[in-house]
Design goal:
421 residues, alpha/beta, 2-enoyl-CoA Hydratase, Chain A, domain 1, Rossmann fold, six-stranded parallel sheet, six-stranded mixed sheet, 14 helices
C-alpha cells in the first residue's frame, strides 16, 4: 500500500507495498460538514449553566481568548457563531475583543493573525497576548506560595470572558485546551516557566522527570493540577471546548463552565484517540502537516506520540516539514550543544521550557533510530540524533530486502496515544 503522510500543506508518499501494515488511527470521524450548526448547539445548550446569549445579557465588554497560529481550530467558522450571539445580546462590535493565547510563543504578523481569525464585524478588535509585557498583565493570586500569577489585563477585566480551544493530548500536561487557554495561554512568562518546571523533580542531586507528567494524565500530574488551580483564579464565564476529527477539522464541541466542558471533551478525546498499548520495531508517522509540523517544537508532539508505540531500538520514519525552524529563539542555547548532560546542566541552572523539549527530542533519537524527512539542514538534524532522509522509499525498500516480518505501524491520519488506565 502507498501511504500519504501530511507534510506542510501537502503530503509525501511512501511505498509500503509488500510489508504488513498495522494502522494506528483514531476512532474519530472527520470534521463536521456544518461547523456553524455544531458550534451553535454547543453555545446555545451548554453542558451546564445558561446559553451564551443569556450569559452575555447586560455585559458591556467581552473578550474571546482563542488559540494562536500553532493550533488549528478553524476560527473563521467558529468565531462568527460566538460574535453573532454577543451582538444579539446587545454588545456592540467595539466592545468585543479577540485575544490570541500565545503563551510563550512569539507573536505572528498582522496578516497571519487576520488569516487565522477570519472576517469579523467592523469594530471588533484583535490582540495578541505578550507574556513578557508587564504592563499588560495583572496579578490575580498565587500559583503556589511565593509564586505569583499574572494574567492578561484585558482578559481579567472583561465583564464576559470566553475561551475557545481544542482539547488534545499533551505530552506532559495531560491535555491541551480547556484551562490551558487561561494558563499558560494568557499568563506571564515567569509563571509559565515555573509551572512547566514541575515536570522535573530532584533525585540524587540531579533532575528527574516526574512520573505523573504524561499525555492523558491529569490526576497526580503536578503541571496539570497547577494549571487547573490557575484557571480557577480567573475562570472563563464560558469555555468552548472543541475536539478535532481525524482529518484535523472540528468534529465535536461543547460549552459551559471550564471544568464541566473540559471534562466532557476529555472523555470524548479518550474515546476517539486512545488505543490499546502496542509496540513495534518499525513505525511510520507524520508531524500532522501545518501548523503541527511547521516548527520542531510543534512537530515533536507527533514524534512523541509515534515513539510511544515503538520498541527500544525501533526504526521510526518520521516526516515533518519544519519550514519555520525550531519555533523559538529560547531553544538556541540547547540546540548549540544538544547532549543530554549539557541540556540538563542548563535546565538545572534555570528552567526553560524549550530546553525540556530539546531534551525530549534527543532522548528519543538516542533510544530509537529516527529517520527524518524535513527541510532542516542535514547537519543540524544529525546533531540532534536524527538520521536525515530524502527518499522515503529507500527506507521501505531496505525493510523489504531485510524481510521484515513484524507489522509496520503507520500513524498517518491523526495522532493516537496508548490508552490510559
Amino acid at each position: 500500500m502507498i501511504v500519504k503522510l501530511p507534510y506542510g500543506l501537502e503530503s509525501v508518499a511512501v511505498d509500503l507495498r509488500g510489508l504488513r501494515m498495522r494502522p494506528l488511527q483514531p476512532a474519530a470521524p472527520r470534521g463536521a460538514h456544518d461547523l456553524g450548526r455544531l458550534l451553535s448547539r454547543a453555545v446555545d445548550f451548554p453542558v451546564d449553566g445558561k446559553g451564551l446569549v443569556e450569559r452575555a445579557g447586560g455585559c458591556r465588554s467581552a473578550v474571546i481568548v482563542v488559540p494562536d497560529a500553532t493550533r488549528r481550530v478553524n476560527l473563521p467558522h467558529v468565531l462568527p457563531v460566538i460574535v453573532n450571539r454577543l451582538l444579539v445580546a446587545g454588545l456592540s462590535p467595539e466592545s468585543v475583543t479577540i485575544l490570541t493565547a500565545c503563551g510563550t510563543h512569539p507573536p505572528t504578523s498582522d496578516g497571519a493573525v487576520a488569516e487565522l481569525i477570519g472576517e469579523l464585524p467592523r469594530g471588533v478588535s484583535i490582540g495578541q497576548h505578550d507574556s513578557r509585557d508587564g504592563d499588560g498583565l495583572i496579578r490575580v493570586g498565587e500559583l503556589r506560595p511565593g509564586v505569583e500569577l499574572r494574567l492578561n489585563r484585558q482578559a481579567v477585566e472583561a465583564e464576559l470572558l470566553i475561551t475557545v480551544g481544542a482539547v488534545r493530548h499533551h505530552y506532559f500536561a495531560g491535555f491541551g485546551g480547556g484551562p490551558k487557554m487561561i494558563f499558560p495561554g494568557v499568563a506571564g512568562h515567569e509563571e509559565i516557566q515555573a509551572n512547566h518546571s514541575l515536570v522535573f523533580g530532584r533525585g540524587d542531586g540531579r533532575l528527574v522527570r516526574h512520573p505523573g507528567c504524561e499525555p492523558g494524565a491529569l490526576d497526580q500530574n503536578p503541571v496539570a493540577e497547577e494549571i487547573a488551580r490557575a484557571a480557577d483564579l480567573r475562570p472563563p464565564d464560558l469555555a468552548v471546548c472543541l475536539v478535532p476529527g481525524r482529518d484535523g477539522g472540528i468534529a465535536w464541541a461543547c460549552a459551559g463552565s471550564w471544568r464541566a466542558s473540559f471534562d466532557a471533551a476529555v472523555g470524548r478525546v479518550r474515546e476517539w484517540y486512545e488505543i490499546p498499548s502496542q509496540r513495534f520495531d518499525h513505525v511510520v508517522a507524520s508531524g500532522g502537516g501545518r501548523p503541527g509540523d511547521s516548527t520542531l517544537i510543534q512537530a515533536h508532539k507527533g514524534l512523541d506520540a509515534a515513539c510511544r508505540f515503538a520498541n527500544p531500538g525501533a526504526e521510526v520514519l518520521f516526516v515533518a516539514e519544519l519550514g519555520e525552524g525550531p519555533g523559538s529563539p529560547a531553544m538556541g542555547p540547547f540546540l548549540a550543544d544538544p547532549r543530554p548532560e549539557s541540556i540538563l546542566e542548563l535546565l538545572a541552572a534555570g528552567y526553560v521550557q524549550y530546553g525540556h523539549t530539546t531534551l525530549r527530542i534527543v532522548e528519543k533519537t538516542a533510544k530509537y533510530r529516527v529517520h527524518l524527512k524535513s527541510s532542516m539542514e542535514p547537519g543540524s538534524a544529525r546533531r540532534l540524533g536524527f538520521l536525515p532522509v530524502d527518499n522515503l522509499d529507500e527506507i521501505a525498500d531496505r525493510w523489504r530486502t531485510e524481510g521484515v516480518e513484524d507489522r509496520v505501524a503507520v500513524m498517518a491520519e491523526g495522532h493516537v496515544w496508548p490508552r490510559v488506565g
